[in-house]
Design the sequence.
């Protein structure tokens, strides 16, 4: 390459020299020899000018070539990153449909394509505590696991911040739904074991299988509808089914109504008794939010997950808290109020709570916070809870046993009351279930915490809870959630809970 450049340099100088000599020769026509001879002194100048000009030509030529090459490389790089995710290197949403279309075109009659949409939630919480580099590293690890899950090389694309699409070819002989579920579930479980999977990150998976009729865009849309349903129902995996379209339309309508429900004062608080285990007298209540729209009372599972997704639970939580403060003089007993994850992680949470509760006697309002909400950011949670407890506000660890439970962790968590999840009470009549409930109760008492058994629905469960020694009971057996007026009217003595057992069903009317 250097030899060629030198050769071009020499040719440029020679050409320029010839041009200069020709110019002299043209000026030395017949009868003008003497004048020509007098111009020979210009030859050295011509040679110097020729050398400078040749060098300039070569330099400019090389620069242009370099510039063109640079532009072509920049264009290639820009085109690549326009089609790929810059963090994971995976194809992005722009090319996902093209990739899937290519796979669908090549699939034979004995095979099918499974599209799995994997969505990671609460990445913003992880970014705020661990920083963006940690989140980027985590996403790269997730991408690698999805590509090689279950020893099958999948085609993976990143559709958005925490959403991945996995395309897997399977045979029709295998169970389509089961095969797709195993591939993704095994990948998720393996990630949780080996990828330092952050405890606060949620995972939802939506699966759709090619049917020979759906286009790539339609198949992707079906998988995304399924993952939305999985998030809403809090299941790990949801499969596409035709009814999901109707559910999507219903959720969209519900979401629109929720946004106006706050302004229209459509939320109300119902109170469920919390009773002493021995005397069965009411010693407190839990305030539970209900939504009444056009006279219809909507079940919490129909709308609370959607309100959480839309960021409405902070305002709704404050409505419940203010209502509890308003009703406290009539109830004259401690009131427990649930705190949603988004409400607790809001930067104004502590100040807002202290402001609302400033006129209520210390200890009369109990904040119920799930174990997962506290452990997702234990350092920040400890600071907030320590401030609240320093003002006399008691904390209940709600739904214990449903997320990342560890009995040894109980010692370090800042709380006052442990509420064992209803799933343990449902199994309390079995030897294993009874042993687990007994162990939790003993550990809680050993570290000075009081206990509440949630979900007591039968007399047999009540007797088992009493034998184990739980301090309080909450469930349909001792009282369903009621409006304030109905609760106060249910007994002449507001502290008395009346239990009437239906002998045939084991249910209650109270």
Sequence:
């Amino acid at each position: 390459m250097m030899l060629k450049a030198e050769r071009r340099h020499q040719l440029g100088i020679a050409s320029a020299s010839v041009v200069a000599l020709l110019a002299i020769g043209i000026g030395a026509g017949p009868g003008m020899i003497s004048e020509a001879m007098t111009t020979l002194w210009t030859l050295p100048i011509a040679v110097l000018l020729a050398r400078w000009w040749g060098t300039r030509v070569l330099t400019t030529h090389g620069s242009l070539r370099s510039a063109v090459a640079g532009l072509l490389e920049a264009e290639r790089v820009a085109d690549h990153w326009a089609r790929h995710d810059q963090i994971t290197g995976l194809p992005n949403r722009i090319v996902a449909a093209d990739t899937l279309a290519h796979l669908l075109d090549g699939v034979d009659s004995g095979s099918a394509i499974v599209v799995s949409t994997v969505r990671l939630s609460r990445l913003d919480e992880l970014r705020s505590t661990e920083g963006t580099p940690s989140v980027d590293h985590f996403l790269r690890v997730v991408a690698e696991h999805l590509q090689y899950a279950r020893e099958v090389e999948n085609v993976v694309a990143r559709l958005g911040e925490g959403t991945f699409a996995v395309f897997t070819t399977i045979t029709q002989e295998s169970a389509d739904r089961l095969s797709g579920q195993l591939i993704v579930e095994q990948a998720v479980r393996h990630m949780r074991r080996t990828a330092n999977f952050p405890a606060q990150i949620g995972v939802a998976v939506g699966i759709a299988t090619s049917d020979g009729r759906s286009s790539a865009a339609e198949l992707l849309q079906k998988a995304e509808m399924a993952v939305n349903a999985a998030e809403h129902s809090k299941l790990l995996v949801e499969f596409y089914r035709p009814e999901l379209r109707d559910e999507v339309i219903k959720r969209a309508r519900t979401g629109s109504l929720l946004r106006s429900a706050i302004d229209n004062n459509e939320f109300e608080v119902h109170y469920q008794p919390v009773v002493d285990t021995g005397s069965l007298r009411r010693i407190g209540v839990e305030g539970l939010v209900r939504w009444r729209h056009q006279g219809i009372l909507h079940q919490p599972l129909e709308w609370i997950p959607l309100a959480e997704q839309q960021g409405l639970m902070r305002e709704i939580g404050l409505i419940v808290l203010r209502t509890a403060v308003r009703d406290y003089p009539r109830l004259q007993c401690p009131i427990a109020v649930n705190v949603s994850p988004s409400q607790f992680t809001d930067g104004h949470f502590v100040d807002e709570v202290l402001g609302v509760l400033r006129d209520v006697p210390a200890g009369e309002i109990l904040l119920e916070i799930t174990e997962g909400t506290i452990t997702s950011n234990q350092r920040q949670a400890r600071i907030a809870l320590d401030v609240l407890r320093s003002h006399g506000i008691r904390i209940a660890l709600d739904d214990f046993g449903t997320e990342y439970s560890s009995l040894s962790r109980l010692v370090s968590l800042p709380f006052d009351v442990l509420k064992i999840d209803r799933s343990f009470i449902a199994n309390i009549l079995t030897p294993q279930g009874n042993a687990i409930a007994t162990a939790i109760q003993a550990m809680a008492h050993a570290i000075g915490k009081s206990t509440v058994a949630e979900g007591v629905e039968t007399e047999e469960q009540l007797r088992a809870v009493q034998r184990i020694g739980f301090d309080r009971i909450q469930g349909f057996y001792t009282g369903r959630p009621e409006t304030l007026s109905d609760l106060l009217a249910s007994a002449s003595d507001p502290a008395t809970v009346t239990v009437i057992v239906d002998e045939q069903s084991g249910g209650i009317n109270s």
